[in-house]
Structures are given as C-alpha cells and as structure tokens.
Design goal:
Helices cover 32% and strands 23% of the residues. The chain has 13 helices and 18 strands.
Amino acid sequence: MLAFVTVGSTRFDSLVNCVFSQPVLSSLRDKGYTQLIIQCGNSELDLRYLLQERDVFASENYGIHIECWKYKPSLRGEYERADLVISHAGSGSILEVLRLGKPLIVVPNASLLDDHQQELATALEEMNHLKVSTISDLARNIAQFKPDSFSQFPAYDGSRSSSVMNFFEFHHHLRFYLRLMKSVIATSVSGDPQEYENNHVHVVYDQIAPHFSSTRYRPWPIIAKFLSDIPSGWVGFDSGTGNGKYLPLPLDSPGKIWTIGLDRSRNLLEIARSAGDGNTIREVICGDVLNNVWRDNVFDYAISIATIHHLATPTRRKEAVQRLLQAVSHIHGRVLIYVWATEQDDFSKRRIPNLDSSSGSDVFVPWVIPKVKPEENAQVFNRYYHMFAGGELLMLVTEAAQEIGLQVGPQEMASARNGIEILQRGWERSNHYVELRFWTSQS
C-alpha cells in the first residue's frame, strides 16, 4: 500500500521531518504500507542537499520505500494512487482528496494556519470525513486509523455544472453546520435536576457516542503532565471518563499507573474499553459520579475532566467534588478537575451569548451530526452545561472540602488532621482547572 504526504506550496518542516521519523515509519509499516511518497515543497529537512542534486530522492527505511520531491504540476495522480493521504490543512488539498474518496489525515501547520483553515479541518473532522492530527500524535493516529469508519464525502460526477453545484451545496451545508455547531443558547434548569440531566446529558451522550468519540482523541497538555507525574504503581480513577482517552496515559510509560474509568454512558464505555492501541482492555465501570461507587480513600489519585459542568445545580456539583475527595487517599492523594469557562479564548468554536457570568451561566451547547444523504437533515442534540465563572471552581472545591471536614490550605497552616493544598489553578483554552494534593497532620 502507498501513503502520500503533501505540504502544498508552503514550508512545513515539522511535518516532513516527522514522516521520516522511526515512529511514523514503523506505524505505516505495521499498517501494511510499503511505499511512502513525500511532496515536501520548500521545507527544510536533513536530506535537503540531496534534493538540490536531483529532483527526486529515493531511499528505503524501516521496510518502507521512500520517495521525496518538491513539486509537480499536479498532485492528482498521487492522490489517485494513494491508499492514505497525509496533508496540510489547505482547503484545496482537503476537498480534492475527499472528492476522490481517499482516507485523509490532516495535520494543521500552526505557523501558517488561519481561522478558515481551522474551521474547515475541524468541521470536516466533526462531520466524520477525516482525522485531524498534531505532529506529536501522528504516529499514534496512523496506528489507530480506520479508513472504513469515516462517512462518505459528497460525490462529484466530473461535469463542470456538477462541480459548481456540489461546491456551493457543500459550502452552504458547511456554513449551516458551523453556525449550528457554534451556537450556545442560554437556558435555565427547571424541575427535577436528575431528570433534567437524564434528558439533556445522559440520553444525548448515548446517542452521539460514536461521533463524539471520533473527535475526542488528543489529551490536553496539563492533564497529560499530571498523569505523567503520578508515581509508578499508583491506582486512580477518571470520573466521567467518556471515551477513555486518558486511561492509557502516560503514553511514553504504558503500565506505569492504572486508571479506571467511570461513566454513565454505556455506549461511551464500550469505546473506552479499548482506548489507546486497541490491544489492551481498559477497566471501566458504569456508574454515576454522584453515587458512592468507591470505598473511601481507596485510590491514589483522581481526575474529573469536563464532567462536573454537566450537573444541573450547585449542590449536585459540590457533591460530585466531594465524591472525588472521599475516594482518594487523605494522606497523599492527588486530584485534578477541569470545567468549561464563561471566558472563551480566540480559538473557541462557540459563540457565547451575552450572559451574567458573575456566578456562572447555564447553557445548551449543540452537538451536530451532519446529514449523510442529501434527503436527510442534520441531527442536532442540545447538551446542558454550566459554564463556570472565574473563581467559581475554587469556591466550589473549598466548600466541598470544608463540608467533609478537610482544611483547605498548605500543610504548614494545619489546624486539622487532614486537608488539601491547591497546587495550581488556572484557565486554559476556555476551561478552568484546579489541582489538589492531600496532606495529613503529624500532630
């Protein structure tokens, strides 16, 4: 099989050098690829002096025949021959490859990327037409790539009129999809909060599980570092694990720690059981983050990522924090919590209405599954979120800890037997987070 890499008319040094690396070449070889063609443009790489001597450089490494060149008048032939295309995020390249029905991994070039390219790549990924990858995740995404899992892109019969009509029809559909995807709607919680969550959180995630999971595969850096820093041999849990993307971490030290996943969605848990390389069965539990699922102090650490903001009242959000605190060791336990923020960064896909954010805001956030056939309509599922205001998460954690007899502050200020220290708190990419460490007084 043949894999084709293209950077278009720009420089993309990091991508070109990445595909020459042992992890990427090994992943391609293990997936059955025997040929790799790289269109490198003006990218600088270790072999650039060879490219100056002749137009094409050929080599063989890790069992793969490699051919590398700068430009050709047209890449259509390479696209047609390829069994997999790895491309920059240029819209022309993306649309041509998808029109040909070729499996596609898009690697955005952060140094050149504009908002339109970001929107296009992200939207097409969430429409399940392609996979978006970072440089650091490319080898892993190739290893996990399943071409048959993607939705077919609208066909083109080759005529000029069809090309024009399909172009405008697709862009109209894409603009509609982006508008739906970005809209955040203010709401207010009414009635029984548990029933409200059942209707606007749990039922929704069970329905969107495969599509949702296909867009949630990149670990966030602070969470990855938290898990990487956990001592070897520790056992912890992920409260609201979703598709289990954090269960295999740290990726560079598999088996160093053991994280068990907890979630209400059985459909997401089915995906979480094989999170990572797909060859390891993960431990997952179907349960509610508000229930007393675990024995007290049984775990060494816990994470709660993008879960507590789905709970419909302050009391329920506080109880979820208390379940985390109760389940980990009060001697050395570590806890990391992430929630969605009212303050959104410039990269956010969401349009936030003008809300009174002094105590957070209750909103519906749509999840859109695009139509597969022209006669179908896009499916829109509204998910409930409580968007946290600045300082609200810290206040929630403080109240939750104090209510169960824990002092909040450094151990040097201890006036109680057990307590928690705030190791770090902050805001990252439209989320608030807080990291906690337990301590016990020796007196």
